[in-house]
Amino acid sequence: MTERHSFHSLLPPEMRGLRHFAQRLTGDSHRAEDLVQVTMMKAWAKRDSFRPDTNLRAWLFTILRNSFYSDLRKYRHEVEDVDGLRAAALSEEPCQDHVLALRELIVAIGDLPEQQSKPLVMMGAYGFSQHEAAMECGCTVGTIKSRVSRGRLALCSALGREMNGHAQAAFGASVAGGRR
């Protein structure tokens, strides 16, 4: 009991020096205080390994320095984000909706008659011009325009959507109004 009591009495005089050293290492008074507390807890837990004929201050400073380096290694990839703005900027909306919509579109295109689906896919997915699609299908450009228009309307009907002006413009630019 006397050894514990004497070890306990040796610690408080070293606190000021430990705080100063921790402050210089961390640059933050709160982290420095936490580091000193961790050092005291580790020193108390390992008090049986301390030899009275050695330098207590050097032993405590070594514990503090090693604890600091351990924390650095442990948290080196951590970024402080108090307000959550960094996490919000890095977060991404789930993409399942896009995958489901694409699957739905593929099924709907597969359900179209080949006369409508073939020109839609050739022009929309492969970038064929109306003229190239007409050559491939063995028909006129006017027929391709008609088939694409009917296919587009059938897709909208199958998907339960109406063609608004924006969708018509986007779809028309990629399919109906492609290269001539």
UniProtKB/TrEMBL annotation:
InterPro entries reported for this sequence: RNA_pol_sigma-70-like, RNA_pol_sigma-70_dom, RNA_pol_sigma70_ECF_CS, RNA_pol_sigma70_r2, RNA_pol_sigma70_r4_t2, RNA_pol_sigma_r2, RNA_pol_sigma_r3/r4-like, WH-like_DNA-bd_sf
Keywords: DNA-binding, Sigma factor, Transcription, Transcription regulation
RNA polymerase sigma-70 region domain location: 16-76
Gene3D superfamilies, sorted: 1.10.1740.10, Winged helix-like DNA-binding domain superfamily/Winged helix DNA-binding domain (1.10.10.10)
Pfam families reported for this sequence: Sigma70_r2 (PF04542), Sigma70_r4_2 (PF08281)
RNA polymerase sigma factor 70 region 4 type domain boundaries: 103-155
SUPFAM superfamilies: Sigma2 domain of RNA polymerase sigma factors, Sigma3 and sigma4 domains of RNA polymerase sigma factors
GO molecular function, one term: sigma factor activity
One GO term of the biological process aspect: DNA-templated transcription initiation
Domain of life: Bacteria
Family membership: Belongs to the sigma-70 factor family. ECF subfamily.
Protein's name in the database: RNA polymerase sigma factor
